């Protein structure tokens, strides 16, 4: 029997036989629902045979036959009654299990969100995406269509829209995003160090979107790429000729036990959230002694240097105020190296040694007890298995695990890891030719930084227009990413690299040598990049990032 568990107490399966009932009872099943009409196949046992065998083993059996491909709303209502009244665990079956899964999905819709239903199906190996419209709202009919639809109005989405309009001013573009505020995320490190005011890193979403772009202020529920359709929550339908997907990452705070309950108090903070970055600076200023712990989860994460940036800038402040000798600074990194590109490690290690930072590799933060000021880490053992380690803290800067948003991970656009599956050069989806992805949500092996999105946006803009027949040639992305590592106030190690960690400096070494701390690089980070972001990148100006186009 091939059982597929959709919940802890409900599973579906292909056709079962009387001889299977003993094993099902051993598994704990207490009730069955047969969704396959008798006589559908020549080798199919009748429901009466199944029912008699079930009774012998103390299992309830119920008959709700549904023709293949004809699951009605009435069928789903009757199935819902069974879900609510029959003892658990419960098994439903048909020829393949698909009709039973369909009935479960439709019956569960009133109490579960579409994303949760699709996620349960994907975990069980059942594709329920074809039910997106029926699950969302079977009677909704609102529909609109655009030449280009962009999902996500972060740095990547707005930059792509602006780059498209810079090339084709009359293009019909819609951006889908429910957020009211657009954040300049690279600035949060500086907020956490008291250098930027929080309000300078946030602007109303409507003020940063291009004027002649249609803003659909809604959340995406599902994709139907075969129908060139995006399904919004509430089952509104948006159709497209070309689709660009760039919704960013999901910060998975709940993956660390106890963390959501203590964020923003008990000395627990994170520069990865706008409302918490000021608390980081408050803690840094107030700490007079004790242990300051900084964490970094497993990759991928947005801006892999950000966990260190907070640590270096905090240590610099404590040294400038004469307190560093009274503070033990600990860095717990789930990875095996300080930084992914080896050329920059020597410069960073000098600061680690100068600040007296204790490095701990292979440790992943798994739990936080804010009231007790205790952090628990998990480490894999060489011979298999894991061990846990607990340490106290007076300040804890947490970087949460990160993954693709739920509606992406359960979609037909995702790879096995949940990321948008694109060609790393063209950024075109590998299976759907009129779909592109960029930014943090793709499976490209580059650093997830704003600098990467700045380089990717013109590539996607060109390739979308080429797909629409409005230009020629193919643009390519080379994996460029940049991480300005703020090693002290006034100095930055400017890491710039391509796919494979190949160095890719923007400036000549006599001006800024990225492998050494630089005051000019700090000036770039503090004074030049913010207006460059707001007035350049988001406005479609492609300074230093004009794409290379091949015929």
TrEMBL record:
Residues 146-259 form the FAD/NAD(P)-binding domain. InterPro entries: BLH_phosphatase-like (IPR005939), FAD/NAD-bd_sf (IPR036188), FAD/NAD-binding_dom (IPR023753), Prot-tyrosine_phosphatase-like (IPR029021), Sulphide_quinone_reductase (IPR015904). The keyword Lyase does not apply. The keyword Oxidoreductase applies. Its cofactor is FAD. GO terms for molecular function: FAD binding; hydrolase activity; quinone binding; sulfide:quinone oxidoreductase activity. Residues 3-109 form the Beta-lactamase hydrolase-like protein phosphatase-like domain. It comes from the Bacteria. Keywords: FAD, Flavoprotein, Oxidoreductase, Quinone, Transit peptide. GO terms for biological process: sulfide oxidation, using sulfide:quinone oxidoreductase. NCBIfam families: TIGR01244 family sulfur transferase (TIGR01244). This is Sulfide:quinone oxidoreductase. It comes from Paraburkholderia lycopersici.
């Amino acid at each position: 029997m091939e059982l597929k568990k959709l919940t802890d107490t409900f599973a579906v399966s292909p056709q079962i036989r009387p001889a299977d009932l003993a094993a099902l009872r051993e598994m704990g099943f207490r009730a069955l629902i047969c969704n396959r009409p008798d006589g559908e196949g020549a080798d199919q046992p009748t429901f009466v045979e199944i029912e008699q065998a079930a009774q012998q083993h103390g299992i309830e059996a119920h008959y709700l036959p549904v023709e293949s491909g004809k699951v009605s709303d009435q069928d789903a209502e009757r199935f819902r009654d069974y879900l609510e009244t029959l003892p658990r665990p419960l098994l439903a079956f048909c020829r393949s299990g698909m009709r039973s899964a369909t009935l479960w999905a439709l019956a569960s819709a009133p109490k579960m969100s579409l994303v949760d239903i699709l996620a349960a199906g994907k975990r069980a190996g059942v594709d329920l995406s074809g039910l997106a419209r029926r699950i969302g709202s079977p009677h909704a009919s609102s529909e609109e269509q655009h030449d280009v639809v962009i999902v996500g109005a972060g740095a990547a989405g707005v930059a792509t829209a602006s780059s498209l309009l810079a090339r084709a001013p009359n293009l019909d573009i819609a951006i889908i995003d429910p957020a009211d505020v657009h954040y300049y995320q690279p600035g949060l490190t500086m907020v956490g160090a008291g250098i930027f005011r929080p309000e300078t890193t946030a602007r109303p979403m409507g003020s940063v979107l291009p004027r002649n772009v249609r803003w659909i202020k809604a959340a995406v529920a599902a994709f139907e790429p075969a129908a060139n359709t995006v399904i919004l929550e509430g089952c509104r339908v948006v159709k497209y000729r070309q689709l660009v997907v760039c919704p960013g990452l999901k910060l998975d705070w709940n993956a660390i036990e106890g963390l959501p309950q203590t964020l923003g108090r008990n000395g627990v903070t994170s520069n990865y959230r706008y409302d918490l970055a000021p608390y980081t600076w408050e803690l840094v200023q107030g700490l007079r002694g004790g242990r300051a712990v900084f964490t970094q989860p497993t990759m991928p994460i947005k801006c892999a240097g950000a966990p260190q940036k907070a640590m270096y800038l905090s240590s610099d402040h404590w040294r400038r105020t004469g307190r560093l000798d009274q503070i033990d600074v600990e860095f717990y990194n789930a990875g095996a190296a300080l930084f992914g590109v080896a050329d920059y490690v020597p410069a960073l290690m000098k600061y680690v040694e100068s600040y007296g930072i204790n490095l701990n590799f292979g440790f992943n933060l798994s739990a936080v007890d804010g009231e007790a000021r205790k952090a628990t880490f998990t480490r894999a053992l060489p011979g298999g298995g894991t061990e846990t380690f607990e340490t106290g803290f007076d300040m804890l800067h947490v970087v949460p695990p990160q993954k693709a948003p739920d509606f992406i991970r359960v979609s037909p656009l995702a790879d096995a890891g949940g990321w948008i599956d694109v060609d790393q050069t063209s950024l075109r989806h590998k299976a759907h030719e009129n779909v592109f992805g960029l930014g943090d949500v793709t499976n490209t092996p580059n650093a997830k930084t704003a600098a990467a999105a700045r380089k990717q946006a013109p590539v996607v803009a060109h390739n979308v227009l080429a797909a629409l027949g409005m230009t020629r040639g193919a643009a390519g992305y080379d994996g460029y990413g940049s991480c300005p590592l703020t090693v002290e106030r006034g100095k930055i190690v400017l890491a710039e690299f391509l796919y494979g960690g190949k160095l890719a400096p923007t400036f000549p070494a006599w001006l800024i040598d990225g492998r050494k701390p630089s005051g000019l690089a700090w000036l770039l980070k503090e004074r030049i990049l913010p207006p460059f972001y707001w007035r350049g990148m988001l406005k479609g100006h492609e300074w230093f990032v004009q794409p290379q186009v091949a015929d």
